[in-house]
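Slide 14.
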Amino acid sequence: MTEHEQEEPVASRTPDAEAPHAATAGEPHTAETGAPHKEARENRPRQPAAVDTADGAEQKDGAEVNTGTTIEKAGVAEAAIPELVIISGMSGAGRSTAAKCLEDLGWFVVDNLPPALIPTMVELGARSQGNVARIAVVVDVRGRRFFDNLRESLADLETKHVTRRIVFLESSDDALVRRFEGVRRPHPLQGDGRIVDGIAAERELLRELRGDADLVIDTSSLNVHELRAKMDAQFAGEEEPELRATVMSFGFKYGLPVDADLVVDMRFLPNPHWVPELRQYTGLNEEVAAYVFNQPGAKEFLDRYAELLQLIRTGYRREGKRYVTIAVGCTGGKHRSVAMSEKLAARLVSEGVETVVVHRDMGRE
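Slide 15: predicted structure.
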């Protein structure tokens, strides 16, 4: 079990005190972003050099103007305001799991961002040409020096008509104590006191924010998968996130891939290496692929393994797993594994699975 897994909320497992899981402040994630960028209105008239805003403040040409639905600059095509979710709550209650879930759903996740920088992050997202359409920010007591600025930032976002939601992760004292004791780490606020002292201090600090939360999730009796299911229900929308697969060919003589979830062995098929006219080619060659799939059991293996993957795929989604690496091996990773990987990936794509093919050892001989 990794350190990160330990921090997740489970009924029989204790998480740590929210070790960093997403991007550090200002560091982007690689997850795909969500909704496309809103197109600029055609023939939009240029704003005058000075205009009066709703609150009476004068804005010079090129300064930001709040239209109620967009953050834009006078004379510049409008930009869509990103959707914003603020994740907070008790340490050990599952903030990491909630953030990871949103990241998997295509949100841009920033961990432990000082609250004073949240409006700036939203403005940067609005200028990203639609590449950052949904932002999730994790705010916790690790940033307690800046925590007092959160209410001011929320008020600033409200004046700019930014759609934002606050997700608050809650848990009972008993559950939190068990989780911290299980990973043998102190509570961020306990100081020289006990874990319960840190929990009490944090509850008091977060009391007002909890009252303002749009969604409160009690994870006292939830495991990781149940929390993910709750987040999916709130944020996945109509389209349920699909499993993403990587099909990797490899050679056993170079070692097993360390990141493989599933491993299959093609060495039960005759090796094209011993056919002189095929030896120099790889499994990407049509003649090599034809040779491999004309062998007894090759097509049957492809059909049956694809059926097995359908069953596994359903189970993975039910358990909240969205990424799988399927390693297909042969002796050198040049012929049989490459040919089978290509066919298997094509089968997965035809079934609607987003699939990437990697030939790890092809070309090493």
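Speaker note: Residues 1-78 have pLDDT under 50 and may be disordered.
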